[in-house]
Amino acid sequence: MSSAFDQLARPVQKWIRQQGWRELRDIQARAIRTIYESENDLIVAASTAGGKTEAAFFPLISQVLDAPAEGGGFDVLYIGPLKALITDQAGRLEGICQEVELPVVPWHGDVSQSVKTRAMKNPKGILLITPESLEALFVRRGLEIARLFGATRAVVIDELHTVLDSERGVQLRSLLTRLELAIKRPIRRIGLSATLGDMDLARAYLRPDNAEHVTLIEADGGEAELKLQLRGYLSGGEDDNTPSATDAVAAHLFEHLRGSDNLVFAGARQRVEIYADRLRNLCEQEHLPQEFYPHHASLSRDHRDFVERRLKDNGKPTTAVCTSTLELGIDIGDVTCVAQIGAPFTVAALRQRLGRSGRREGQPAILRQYAVETRLSSDSSFVDRLRLGLIRSIAMIDLLLEGWCEPPKPQALHLSTLVHQILSVIAQRGGAPANVLYSVLCREGPFRQISTAMFTDVLRALGHPETGLIEQTDGGLLLLGQNGERLVEHYSFYAVFKTPEEYRLVSNGRELGTLPIDNILSPGMMLIFSGRRWLVQEIHDREKVIMVKPAKAGVPPVFGGDPGEIHDNVIARMFDVLKADTKPLYMDANALGMLEEARLNYAQIGFTDASLVNLGEETSIIATRVGTMKTTTLALALRGFGFSVEQYDGFLQVEAGDETPLLTEVLTRIGEGEVVDLFAGAGNLLTEKFHPYLTRELLEIDAVSSRLEPRVLATLARAFVSQL
DNA sequence: GACCTGCTGCGGTGTG
Q1: In the prediction, which pLDDT does A314 show?
Q2: Which end of chain A has fewer CB atoms < 10 Å from its terminal CB, N or C?
Q3: Which of A 123-152 have CB under 7 A of nucleic chain B?
Q4: From start to end of A418-552, where are the E strands?
């Protein structure tokens, strides 16, 4: 074996030999050398089951064994985004550590109190924890952080891409800074990831002050061959004898996926239930054993475990129809094919999903993309005519093949999470002056875009008598106010993300899953849920329970959701596809026919030469040719002038009212830099968990920073005016 | 026009 192997501690070498491994993988050898020969932070990027965990832990465990820390404290900290992932990884690490008396401590909400108490008394070895449980340690045991982590050599962050610029990612980066401040020295950071669109940005996220010293270790090549098909289907119209597009897609899935393990990404929980129901019926009709199961976050843990077990190690063929629940996380083994119904929202998700297939030597990765479009009639809208879903699928596959995916958005302020961290630091220290808070969170921590003036505004909002989250002593120390105490004391404080209220669905004492509270149901209604059909018997509003019993028919429930966000590059590529005349080889005849139709209509409506087209007296269509953030900004501006506006991928449909000025005149004014109020017709600004404690002014600033781009408004408007 | 993720400490009762 290699020289890297020789650097490892004896017990680790022994364990590797016992596995029958003839050599270390390239990323493992490189990670070992980097960790032994430098103090650098590092990012290890490789596909699922590519040996990333071992790449980080072989050398880390070896270093701990070769030079045990004096005194107590955890030697290595691992942070994982899922409880299931922590349980999985703890099992793997225990295998390596069992002969060396290095404790492996899983720590999350489902771990028993006794395990936690024991670990607190004698902190040692590897601690595997969620961001929320780490947050809880800071809030509840703020003074013990230095004792627990004083000896920690490294922090391993798993699935780094999931925490880059989410609220949760900002929370984690804030906690890492606070950890280093508490023990008064930096801790080596090691990020593990599969999908990273922009490596330089990822390095800057891992270590903002020293990104150039983040070593990047990427698995080279080795990507499986990709087999790809995009099939087109039409829904609506025609007579009753033609099968619906849903039936046709289900029939195709049934025929081609039966007999092996597969993942079908259906895009929404409601569609998961619809397709799982159809596929189940097809099995019953053919008198075949059931092998298609739904999987999404509203289904009970029991049911999800069952489906995951069947995928993982059961010999029975299993296809999960799922949402992004099966996109990352625990190892479910290799699947034969990944199907995607409708275009996804990001190329990153598509890439991550595809990574679930083609992992076995010599097996190709297979992607079956289904595009379902509306059958056209004489009064079809321009959106249907342009077949935007199909076009987006093509654009995304194009970008996927080029290796591009969405980078993080570094400009967002994350004021909701800032509120959370202010309260958390005050709780940790039992009080803090404003300048210390600013220094910890905004100078050292991740909130670097926040000026002292804005920080003061946030503190004022939190200290306002009606909010009552914080108060100030005569000496200038900030303490938790009455409402602040109440908020921080409750266990729901630790997570920074918002969760909707839900009803529990129960049949015969068994919990099937949950439904959002705004889903209006009444006794007697029939429901498809968890791949079966149910009759609603009773609804208990106070206990938030819905009692159901098996039934023969049903309709899928409505789950609701947030608007998606499509990147500029995806929209730009969609317009390239509409303008081009190439015919991708991976499309079937139906899909090619639909593409041809879309291109013809694109030219016919006049978008080849113009971006502003009038359809009748009141209706205009603007081809913005840019992504969701910029398109939404223009839509808000126009609504401010009284237009009613509908938004699509790269397009706006604008309706003039009785009082509205001419659209071209408004666009000219915007193009000349007239200041417009984007929030005049304001929608809901309370999108994050701690938003209710901020002023309207701060909420608008936060919305602009994360969801809008007012700076490009004038340029955008000028582009349309110049064409007139 | 969508999806996903997480949670402490205490007091009560029961068991060996």
Answers
A1: 75
A2: C
A3: 130, 132-133, 136, 140-141
A4: 432-433, 470-472, 477-480, 502-507, 510-516, 526-529, 532-540, 545-550
